[in-house]
User: Which sequence fits this backbone?
């Protein structure tokens, strides 16, 4: 519970695990992200909200080095390489991308195994796999199944499970609720909340604000590639508040 | 009129050469899957496999198995070199498929000409691996080299299947072919997988070249016809489907052999291209359906 207390109001913000300074990104000649600062504390769950096209996905992709980007990103006070996804992922910054990016023609078990591609320790591998299958029991029944033949919700669980196999220090999620039934979304968000209470730092990009607000300790509002507000979810008392920020 | 009694015998030899086309076709698929590149230097690997083995064996007196192993290793290394100095720089600049094909074709020509300078233009051959009388089935003779070709090819196909299905590296290579970005997000070194794909497919080409040389000959310029046949095998099988490519190779080998009996040897290439056109018209996605 200490971690939850630390992020409570009035207590100093936790030391950042991930901090970007002047981070910007472009696709060709299009500036998709204007230089911005963002900070994720140890054990913190930060939500990034904003309308379609605000640059939320680009922000996550820039943090990973998946798009051409400039600026500095520090992970536990060491600078992260900026255009090298494999290096960023190997440090434990793991992205569950928009559209999940599962390996559809391969089995669920193979997908999970590839999540732990950098891991050589067999007992640690077994431990992580057991943990993932406990968090998502539905995957356990489907280990031998071809991943692409599962329902959207199961695929999202697999994508998150695969990310957990990497033993992430920071988990980045790009709209995990996209296209899922409300009940499945709740199940997934509940699991994310549980992981966060255990101390995992999470950045959650969402279009459905109410879902993210329930979990987040802090919220960044993004619009047209800029951060327009940094909010405490408890200050947002009505949807009108949020709508105002969206529109401003 | 053709003599039909030759047909079974001809089918046997067609199956042998078909295995070789199949191996070359698999080589095309392995690189295509890892990178989306069609590597036309594939024929150079086939030629060098036979040529290096022949040189080490005849000129330097190495035992045949040792010469063959050294040749496969050397050609695999050359595959990595080509990936590093020809393909990688273009890939990093996001060159188009057309540029890649031209660049690898250029590499093919350079290797071919260097080989001509080093070993000359005389065709060379290797002895059969085991010098035993052919097995007779009625009027059909099955030479031991045929058994080496078929057995060796099947063993390699089985090993490859196990590699892609069971090992972490094999699975990672498949992951790269399914979704390169998602593979990188798992920390899979995508560029190292590309180098590995070149090594693997160069080794496949070299093995194909070594297996076939005792039944034919090798010369500096045998690479391109083999590359074309392997390429057709890959298309017929469904481009990007390694086992489809092997089936495609068998089909192509049989068709060519039949065409030689029925229409005469001059029409071998016509038969190969007709098979290709037939598939492009009727089933463009190939026997197993294209990978992408």
Assistant:
């Amino acid at each position: 519970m200490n971690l939850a207390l630390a992020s409570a109001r009035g207590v100093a913000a936790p030391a950042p695990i991930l901090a970007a300074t002047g981070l910007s990104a472009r696709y060709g000649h299009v500036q998709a992200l204007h230089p911005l600062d963002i900070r994720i504390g140890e054990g913190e769950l930060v939500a990034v909200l904003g309308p379609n096209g605000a640059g939320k996905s680009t922000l996550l992709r820039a943090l990973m080095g998946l798009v051409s980007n400039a600026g500095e990103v520090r992970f536990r006070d060491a600078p992260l390489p900026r255009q090298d996804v494999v290096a960023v992922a190997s440090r434990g910054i793991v992205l569950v991308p928009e559209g999940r990016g599962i390996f559809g023609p391969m089995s669920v078990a193979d997908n999970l195994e590839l999540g732990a591609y950098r891991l050589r320790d067999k007992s640690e591998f077994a431990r992580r796999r057991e943990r993932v299958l406990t968090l998502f029991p539905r995957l356990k029944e489907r280990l031998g199944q071809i991943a692409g033949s599962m329902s959207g919700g199961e695929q999202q669980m697999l994508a998150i499970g695969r990310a957990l196999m990497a033993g992430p220090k920071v988990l980045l999620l790009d709209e995990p609720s996209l296209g899922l039934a409300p009940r499945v979304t709740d199940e997934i968000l509940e699991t994310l909340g549980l992981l966060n209470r255990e101390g995992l730092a999470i950045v959650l990009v969402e279009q459905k604000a109410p879902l993210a607000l329930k979990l987040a300790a802090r919220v960044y509002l993004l619009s047209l590639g800029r951060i327009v507000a940094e909010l405490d979810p408890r200050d947002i008392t009505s949807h009108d508040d949020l709508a105002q920020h969206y529109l401003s | 009129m053709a003599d039909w009694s030759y047909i079974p015998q001809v089918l046997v030899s067609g199956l042998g050469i078909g295995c070789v086309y199949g191996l070359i076709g698999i080589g095309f698929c392995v690189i295509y899957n890892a990178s989306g590149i069609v590597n036309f230097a594939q024929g150079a690997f086939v030629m060098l496999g036979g040529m290096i083995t022949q040189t080490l064996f005849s000129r330097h007196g190495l035992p045949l198995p040792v010469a063959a192993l050294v040749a496969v290793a050397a050609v695999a290394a050359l595959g990595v070199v080509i990936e590093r100095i020809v393909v990688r720089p273009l890939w990093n600049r996001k060159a188009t498929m057309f540029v890649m094909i031209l660049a690898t074709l250029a590499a093919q020509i350079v290797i071919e000409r260097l080989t001509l300078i080093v070993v000359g233009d005389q065709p060379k051959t290797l002895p059969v691996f085991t010098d035993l009388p052919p097995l007779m089935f009625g009027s059909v003779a099955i030479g031991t080299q045929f058994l080496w070709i078929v057995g060796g090819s099947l063993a390699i196909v089985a090993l490859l299947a196990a590699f892609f299905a069971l090992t972490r590296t094999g699975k990672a290579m498949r992951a790269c072919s399914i979704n390169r970005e998602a593979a990188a997000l798992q920390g899979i070194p995508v560029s190292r997988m590309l180098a590995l794909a070149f090594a693997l497919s160069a080794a496949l080409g070299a093995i194909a070249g070594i297996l076939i040389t005792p039944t034919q000959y090798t010369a500096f310029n045998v690479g391109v016809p083999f590359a074309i046949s392997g390429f057709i095998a890959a298309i017929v099988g469904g481009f990007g489907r390694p086992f489809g490519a092997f089936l495609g190779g068998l089909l192509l080998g049989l068709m060519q052999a039949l065409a030689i009996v029925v229409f005469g040897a001059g029409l071998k290439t016509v038969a190969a291209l007709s098979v290709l056109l037939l598939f492009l018209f009727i089933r463009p996605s190939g026997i197993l359906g294209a990978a992408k």
